[in-house]
Amino acid sequence: MSNSNPKIVKSTENSKLKKKIFCNRCGIDTVHLVLSRVSFTYIGKDEPTFWSDYCVIQCNNDCHAITFMETHNHSDNLSGYDPDEGDVTIGEDEYIYYPERIILNKEIMESRTIPKVMKEIYYETISLVSKKMFRFAALGLRVIIEEFSKDKGAKTRDLSKKIKELRKLEIINDSDKNILFELKKFGDGAAHRNEVQQESILNLSLKIIEGLLFKFYVVDEKRTLFEEQKNALLKTTKK
Ligand SMILES: [Zn+2]
Q: What sign has the CA pseudo-torsion 12, 13, 18, 22?
């Protein structure tokens, strides 16, 4: 970043943020109010101009949760000038939130059959991605697979063998086996070769993990619930 003295603008406002952001408490994207803002502009002579925005924002739903939001961008990210909009960015602003946004799958967290330890690792791995700790997040994926394999009855020590064992026991199919190996590789790469995965890849990996947890735990719970409700309904109609 440029060393030039920044131009600083402080403001107290009550405007609404242009885009909705995820509220940890509401569990959905909500409108947020900007309570106060400090903007820095660093203008360098032969360097790109940097902007940093620091805002205290508040969820506009009933929860009123407060978040501190940082936004950063620089002039290399600009494509041009629009008379109405001003500078038009082509590159995404970088957003950092305190506390970080943790978008958990509600059905997984409320599941009665997914072991507690797996939910904890799932939570921690999502939190690590939010904190941009990508190597440790990749390890988190590996630990989830390890716990999943143990819970589904794999007895061998080595994780590769555990996955193959699950396939042999016909608990998982070939497609599950292949994806578990793919995700395991990220953890291996982080632990042994200092490999860093892209945030988008880790987020997609977590979506796949969610899908697997859904398939191997949540669907059975829904099925049981379905049977219970169907039987209860039959009883009342027989009376
Ligand atoms: Zn909220």
A: positive
Look up the pTM and report it.
0.72
3-state secondary structure at position 204: helix
Select from 100, 84, 95, 98 the least CA-distant residue to 51: 95
Cα(129) to ligand 1 centroid in Å equals 21
C-alpha to C-alpha distance for 85 and 89, rounded to whole angstroms: 10
Contact between 181 and 166 under an 8 Å Cβ cutoff? The reply is no
Give the DSSP H or E segment for 37. strand 32-42
- Order the strands of the 50-59 sheet from edge to edge: 7-12, 32-42, 50-59, 66-74, 94-98
CA 106 to centroid of ligand 1, rounded, Å? 15
- Residue 22 CA, ligand 1 centroid: distance in Å: 8
Integer CA distances (angstroms), 148 to 47, 68, 143, 152, 170, in order: 50, 36, 8, 6, 15
Number of helical (H) and strand (E) elements in the chain, helices listed first? 7, 9
pLDDT by residue (tens digit) across 66-112?
999 999 988 776 666 666 666 555 567 788 899 988 888 989 999 99
The three-state DSSP-derived secondary structure of 153-164 is CCCCCCHHHHHH
pLDDT at 171 over 50: yes
